Amino acid sequence: MTFAQLGTGVSKGIAIGPVHILYRDELEIPEYALPEKFVPDEQIRYTAALILARQQLHDILSHIPANTPADIAEFIDTHLLMLNDSALARIPLEIIANQRCNAEWALKLQRDALVRVFDAMEDPYLRTRRDDVDHVVNSIQRILLNGPVHHGVQPAQEHPHSGHILVADDLSPADTVLMQHQGIAAFITETGGPTSHTAILARSLGIPAIIGLHRARDLLRDDETIILDGQQGWVLANPDEYSLQFYHQKRRQEHIQYLESVKNRDLPAVTQDGETIKLMANIELPTDIDAVHNIGAQGIGLYRTEFLFMNRISPPDEEEQFRTYLEVVEKLKGKLLTIRTIDLGADKQVDGGRHQTATTTNPALGLRAVRLCLKEPALFIPQLRAILRASACGPVRILLPMLSNINELKLILELINDTKARLTEQGIPFDDDIAIGGMIEVPAAAIKARMFLHHLDFLSIGTNDLIQYTLAIDRIDEEVNYLYDPLNPAVLHLIALSIEAGKSLSKPVGMCGEMAADPRFTRILLGLGLTEFSMHASSLSGVKQVINNSHFTQLSAETQKMMSTPDYDEFLTLLHRFQYTSRH
Predict the structure, then answer these.
(1) Does a structural domain hold residue 90?
(2) pLDDT band of 82, cuts 50, 70, 90
(3) Which of 193-197, 200-204, 268-272, 277-281 has the lowest mean pLDDT?
(4) Which of 75, 129, 178, 421 has its CA 20 to 30 Å from the CA of residue 453?
């Protein structure tokens, strides 16, 4: 029997395939073949993970209180002995060499062999020691899985879950990137918000996704075929033949529309009364650049660098960051690149981004973005050096996230100037006139946008955070995210203030938040005076189409009337009329 379930679609696209249900305590172990020349490096990677696993246990032992029962320490000592035993210290290395496979898979094969031995034992106590094997093996696996990708080798397309639709409670951004490498066709989560960075990353990677589908793991079964519509938020379980044919046809039509948008990529974005609008793209990974060229974006308005820090136990050093940024600069072939400095914290907690600190009650209001960079300059300065070095090779701008007060900005600018001075002393080239901008994500920054612009070259409005901070709602909390309203008059007022500040000082103000990517809001933003949009490449053609069918001066007059009314009911009436007429 066919049944449908509705969640929140966050990344458009149709996916048809079998279900794979993921539980939090389940590790997804990739399997891929290694070229022979990379085998020694893979053995070194495994050995390093083993050493770190031992170190973690020694650290635990050193912090055990004196009054702790002795059997707890003995339990840890047992695990240390297992880590030193040849069964885990030597045999996985042999498997890597003999089968030329990745370290994670070699360890899984050895774990399975050990478990079979324990399961065959008659003594009940000895049989239960297989749990110790799993504890120790999982500690090594987590280190391996959270480490950086090595050798440029990706899991093979024949991964056991390739083509499946993943169903989970929630996913981290790191999980989302790994899923693409493993060939996952789409994903569903039971929790999460539409503007979380996992949702944004799903759009960037082109993975159809639905969030907030309650009890999905109870309603769906492993390996049953489902249809997922990432735009409408529909999941169709046990579809009949008619439904399968309909959605296969819909998927083909979407592909044709994409080809049409590629065909029209060189058409300019110009309103009917001649106002030229700049359309740029948001990216998370260097691999996104192909889509940027295919869709005809004029440059990169937002490069989210924090994804370079994911899935690893230590942050990337200056050289690795420089090589990554240089790759993007070269791929852009002279188009502008706007690099946002690391915006770690809130919903982007990743191992490689920061030192261990106490748990924050509300991370969205805590140590994140520039606050974290000022507290930990050893994390920030290598990135600044890498960005500045890349600026010598093509047009690059620096974008500072989460600014909230001028003193904070001055400290950041001092760090940038000090970094420039050090590079000059070392004879390392960079663009001394590199533009530095700030993100408007906090109401305080929007209200004082003109003051910030006296110290900056440009502004970029990040509507995702601006909306949640203005309306005092957590955008990834499913209990309150229904209150997330881009058209709230207070939000629109803050956007207008930011745009007006730019006009008064003749400095550019763009928008890189998700609001810029939604064609439903394009004419309202044009009416507020926005002339620079940045969004995921897949949204650009739809926004361009609205722009080319709009009249900039007329929209400005309509929006000014709507914004000037003091009566909320009248505001809603004008807003509704504005939206209605804007579709024609």
Answers:
(1) yes
(2) confident
(3) 193-197
(4) 421
Sheet strand arrangement including 3-6:
3-6, 234-237, 225-229, 14-21, 165-168, 186-189, 209-211, 8-11
C-beta of residue 203 within 8 angstroms of C-beta of residue 516: no
Structure tokens at 33: 């073949």
Residues 447 and 516 in one domain: yes
pLDDT at position 314 over 80: no
Strands (E), 466-541: 509-511, 532-535
Question: Concatenated DSSP letters for 404-426?
Answer: --HHHHHHHHHHHHHHHHHHHHT
The secondary structure of residue 149, as a DSSP letter, is P
Same-domain pairing of 344 and 236: no
Render the burial of 401-414: b for 16+ CB within 10 Å, e for the rest: bbbbeeeebeebee
Contact 468, 475 (CB under 8 A): yes
* Backbone dihedral angles phi then psi of residue 254, each to the nearest 5 degrees: -60, -40
Out of 121-135, 417-431, 549-563, give the one with best mean pLDDT.
417-431
Maximal CA-CA distance, the chain: 85
Mean pLDDT of 309-323: 80
425 belongs to a structural domain: yes
397, 436 Cβ separation under 8 angstroms: yes
φ/ψ of residue 78, rounded to 5: -60, -45
More confident residue, 261 or 430: 430
pLDDT at 116: 85
Domain containing 203 — which CATH number? 3.50.30.10
> Catalytic amino acids?
197, 512
Helices H, strands E: what count in the chain?
24, 16
What confidence tier does 191 reach under pLDDT thresholds 50, 70, 90?
confident
- CA 107, CA 582: separation in Å to the nearest integer? 59
Kindly state the average pLDDT of the residues 9-17. Answer: 86
If one counts the domains in the chain, the total is 3
Q: Measure the CA–CA gap between 368 and 354, rounded to whole angstroms.
A: 10
Q: Is the model's pLDDT at 354 over the cut of 80?
A: no
The whole-number pLDDT of residue 51 equals: 93
Sign of CA dihedral 435, 439, 445, 447: positive
Number of Cβ atoms within 10 Å of the Cβ of 533: 27
Could you give the CA distance from residue 14 to residue 25 in angstroms, rounded to a whole number? 29
How many Cα atoms within 13 Å fall on the side-chain side of residue 109?
Answer: 17
CA distance 299 to 520: 23
- Which residues span the domain enclosing 360? 264-582
Closest CA to 280 of 551, 517, 441, 519: 517
What size, in residues, is the chain?
584
Q: pLDDT tens digits for 416-463?
A: 999 999 999 999 999 999 999 999 999 999 999 999 999 999 999 999
Q: What CATH code is carried by the domain that includes residue 325?
A: 3.20.20.60
